[in-house]
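Listing S7. Sequence submitted for prediction.
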Amino acid sequence: MNIAVVGTGYVGLVTGTCFSEMGINVTCVDIDAAKIEKLKQGIIPIHEPGLSELVGKNYRSERLRFTTDLTQCLDDVEIVFSAVGTPPDEDGSADLRYVLDVARTIGQHIKRYILVVTKSTVPVGTAQKVKATIQAELDKRGVSIPFDVASNPEFLKEGTAVDDFMRPDRVVVGTESDRAQELMGKLYRPFTLNNHRVIYTDIPSAEMIKYAANAMLATRISFMNDIANLCASVGADVDMVRQGIGSDPRIGSRFLYPGCGYGGSCFPKDVKALIKSASEHRYDMQILRAVEAVNERQKTLLFSKLENFFKASGETLSGKTIALWGLAFKPDTDDMREAPSVVVMDALLAAGSTVKVYDPVAMNECRRIKGNAVTYAADMYEAAGGADALLLLTEWKEFRLPAWDVLKKTMRQPVVIDGRNIYNKKEMHANGFHYECI
């Protein structure tokens, strides 16, 4: 079976590579010629465990190909996946220009039946826009060529994306014809042989499922952050509260961990897009507006805790050296999009602090974003050396059991603000640290 995947970003590259691993011939397409050349050389543009090895293996076996020209492979493929970016517009809506550009190219060049599948996260109604765009180009050509559209949203978690794709908890496929459903069934047959579940729906429902899923997870995070902040006011222990409510099978324990806010490429963008999509249909997503507001406030919480600590002794953050452990929005990725670390760095720099940072994989991404505004350390201990305070922002495993005696000797002041609640308060106090968490 031959397919094409347009877009070699996070979703497209993982999708194409994993399909090729299942024995499917995949052509990955991207307009960025430099990126395509690097992929041919085995240079991966993102950090994702296990992906580099699979790309190299399947490229060498010629099941995985890379090109900048979609038209070169249209005659040979049965399915084209559109996995191009849908960045948020200024009003929060998803920008569909790249999705529709792909549709136009397909309409201008197809010669036989093809199934066009939207893999990108897009608002409800996008598939119909794709269909109309392709049909408009066929009409311009004065030809009648059959085609179908479908929706196949991704549910990949950064850091575990390869495993998520190869062992999905569910595959959602939205179609509007038997032919399209049969073709998607053929594509996913290797997965159903391992008893992975494929859920077939209409197209609008498939498009909505992705947004609703991310909105629910974001809601749980913001809810627990609100509860954590209330716990701090009333003297309750949020970790005990989390365990107590998470033991209820109707609630469950996942995504109930308080922290310094969610980030990344999905939750912030998708919450905004769903709010905007609802407003276009004259409906106000009140809960999601609150989810978004709580999250934006949460990203400033560590800075506020730090500022209040120094205010209590009549000091300011001006001239202080602050160390940050963790820059990516979560472990096992170098993604800093909408990360709390960006908000914290901006606030510290505006307050006149010197900022020293360390992250196991996101240092180059931070250099791209912040340039020379912050100081880059070679490791976690170098970052903390001479610091007036240490802020933990990402719960990388290597941060879990530091040598506190070494840190106390090298830091100017033994102050730790824990944005992910990974340390024990009694232990920190016993080691002589001023410690605060969420």
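Caption to Listing S7: primary sequence and predicted structure tokens for the chain studied. The two ends are 51 Å apart (CA to CA). Residues 111 and 143 are 9 Å apart (CA to CA).
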